[in-house]
Amino acid sequence: MNNKVPQSLADARFLGTQVRDDGSGPLVVSHQLGLSVVEGSDRGTQVKLSGVRLTIGTASGSELVLSDQTVSRRHCEILVRNEQYLLRDLGSTNGTLLNGTPVVEAYLTPGSVIQVGATQVLFEPTKKWERVAEPASDRFGEMFGASRPMREVFGLLARIASTDLSCLIMGETGTGKELAARALHSQSSRADKAFVVVDCGAMSATLTESELFGHEKGAFTGADRMRPGAFELADGGTIFLDEVGELPIHLQPKLLRALERREVKRLGASRSVDVDVRVVAATHRNLGSMIESKDFREDVYYRLAEVVITLPPLRERREDIALIAERMLRTLTPAGRPPLSLSTEAINELKGRPWLGNVRELRNTIKRAAALVQGSSIDTQSLGARQIRGSTQTGTMPALTGSYDIGDAPPPLHEGLPIKEARELWVAHMEKAYLKQVIQRFSGDLGAASEHAGVHRKSLERLLRQHQLKSQDLLDEEEAPEAVEA
Q: Which of 175, 217, 111 is nearest to 361 (CA)?
């Protein structure tokens, strides 16, 4: 079996547990977690749940709700991890036993007996593989594409939309991660409930906790009233954690608690509040590398990545560009204007551009052209000049995280992108140039270089990996003799 690794993850062990690719398209494995109470006051109670997580306790939000008073509210849980079943105690008062042995974490096998308090539960799992069929439609929600990569994405989104599986959407800036999240919500059973967006990259570190979990009146200076957080506002619906890779490391344990226990505690509160939310997260960051450098918690990753979906960049599905541009043109044509069209030359020009900002940049280009064109047909002149040139011969172009060769000259201004993305291009150039110089200055001594740079050594190593730099290569580059003309 050929398990494809998303481009933005460094190691196959960080893949979601639900999706595999055998070379003929994605497969989804459906796990059915079966529990039967065989001893205790709830004897005869049975639960069968399709999913990758099941909790046992007396709390009403548990999948197996027990009346046994020796059982904690959130006593323990069963997780699907790498096609195995993991039993975890959730800090219960009386502990969890597996086949008579106390455990904190242990892998289950079919027929295992779990004891919580005075209750014994028999574990009976099953699973089946399902091929994800490519849909006939060239759209899913507000996403468009007729290429095979996008049809596979649409098929997978359609397959998991009706579930409550947490989903991690990977992709470069501008590929449509929020559109995918909104489409998942709109086609789920939660569609009539709230869809709450939290931009983890746009909030200050001091306010992020309050934004996520809320606060009580007087919890901090300026908290003049109680305010529910995003998790409470999304109760019954979906919470979308955009750019989750930017979430400060000190807040990740609190996010983990919310994901594990399905409850949140407002700042300044003494009691927790139960929440029922589906979590969809997105990032353009390399979470695999961040986990290795201890900048992102692996346990949080596994909570979010029950399904991993990777959105391909626009340059890898150029056959979709004309379709997307023409659909955009219909909605972006100013009111009162006759319908606009794209000339053959304009379409060819669009197909040849690198699209560092992906679909978002394409939309900005079409919007500008529709506003400025004089006639009814958009030509190459109406599109404006390319803002950033790059080779399209290799089929690859740089991402906006700085992991590319930007040369010695700073990148040109690129008004085709929002200021946040345009700024990233400049910051990436500065970071890479700085790293080259500091590594060469200290002759490859990463300890001295990190001290000089004012960052932890692991942070420096992470930046080097992000920019695909190796200290030995930089030293070799510095020592290489200059070419002498004959």
A: 175
